[in-house]
Description:
Elements: H1 2-28, H2 32-164, H3 168-215, E1 227-231, H4 236-242, H5 247-256, E2 259-261, E3 268-272, H6 276-292, H7 297-326, H8 333-341, E4 346-347, E5 350-351, H9 352-369, H10 374-383, H11 398-408, H12 413-421, H13 432-445, H14 454-469, E6 474-480, E7 485-490, H15 497-514, E8 522-527
Parallel strand pairs: 7-8
Antiparallel strand pairs: 1-3, 2-3, 4-5, 6-7
Helix pairs in contact: 1-2, 3-9, 3-15, 5-7, 6-7, 7-8, 9-10, 9-13, 10-12, 10-13, 11-12, 12-13
Amino acid sequence: MEPNILYYIIIAIAALLAGVLAGKMIFAKNTKKHVEDAEQQSKLILREAELTAENLKKEKELEAKEKFVQLKAAHERDVMQRNQKVVEVENRIKQKELGIIQKEQGIVQKEQSVTLKEVNLDKQAKDNDAIKETLNRQIEVVNLKRTELEKHQEEHIRRLEKVAGLTAEDARNQLIESLKQEAHTRALVIQQEIIEEAKLKANKEARKIVIQTIQRTAAEQAIENSITVFNLESDEIKGSIIGREGRNIRAIEAATGVDLIVDDTPEAIVLSSFDPLRREIARLSLQRLVADGRIHPARIEEVVEKTKKQLDDQVMEIGERTAMELGVHGLHKELIRMVGRMRFRSSYGQNLLMHSRETANLCSIMAAELGMNPKLAKRAGLLHDIGKVPDEETELSHALLGAKLAEKYGENPAVVNAIGAHHDEMEMQYVISPIIQACDAISGARPGARREIMQQYIQRIKDLENLAQAYQGVEKAYAIQAGRELRVIVEADKVSDADSDKLSFEIAQKIQTEMTFPGQIKVTVIREKRAVNIAR
């Protein structure tokens, strides 16, 4: 319908245009020629309009056909998609139906199995009832037999008590007591074996570390003395030193606190004092006085004062040099001065500074071997005996005094504890404390390190023998090898072989807890049975 309307409209427009043109042409020129030309032009316009209308009609028809084809294809696609969805929905419904059918079958099977189980349980319940009745009858029989057995046992016990002359309670107590003794003996044996095994392992490792430490440390021998010999160029100088009526020698002794012994020894004067520092002051003062030649009381006092000041500077220099050589830094000046004063002190004949240096090196090496801080251990080893060189006398032991001084001058708490605990006078709270104690003992107990006073040595030997003889059954006790071994001879009738092991262990433990000794002491218990008869 639309192409036909458009067609007529175009024709009308074309006719209207033709009429207008014709009117204009007639109006402009009223000639025949012009009219003919206008008619021809109008015809041409009409033809062109008809052709245009035909072309437009064809185009519109083609467009309409194309739109129809497109709409048809879209409709078919929609129909196909809807069909696919319908098919999918139908498939899902079928699958659900299959699942429901399978579940129904499973439920039916479960119901069947439950029914079978109920039947079986009923059977088992009936069987259990029968078993219970049987068991009850058997229990009654057993109870009757038990009652009879108890009666027989009581009768048997009464007969045994009558034969043995003991009640069951007494026999039980005797058995328990014998078992206790046997268990105690076995426990001691096992304990001894465990201790020996632990000692072997510990000694092996400890010996390895200690030997490596000692081998890497050079040590000096001890020199125990309380005198210093001052050599003179000639015996004539002795008179100047003595002075008129002995005033010079008295002035020297009063100023230094040292006894001067002038005897027949050629070209020598003996300086005697228990304090090495005083002897050194006296020696240096005499050396200056003899070199100067002016020896009189006023000059003596002046020289002694100068020597004391010079020695104080020397003490500080010794302390600083010792700390520098050992790599111990940050020490308080008072502690450095105390370290320097150790140079002029001795302990059991062992120079205190050399002992402290040796202990410091031992501590450093042992701490390094054990994976600990070697610098801290070396510091504690160097300072462990500073309580032996106090400025003032005190009632505290040197270990506790040293700990107090170290704490006063700001030392590390581990160092303070190691100093105070190296003679077990303070509880050990840090790991380095036992290292300091062990290295102090190593330095003091090695051969040639110290000289023990004879009376103390003899007393220690006597105490060792008396300790062993205090035990019951001990016949004799001998301390041999300079007190390193104790041999105990027991009476064979009073001490058994098992008791010998126990006695050896107990004596060793008592020595360890009650006595102080260097190194270790081996306890050997000897038990032998001698049968003696005389043929006549």
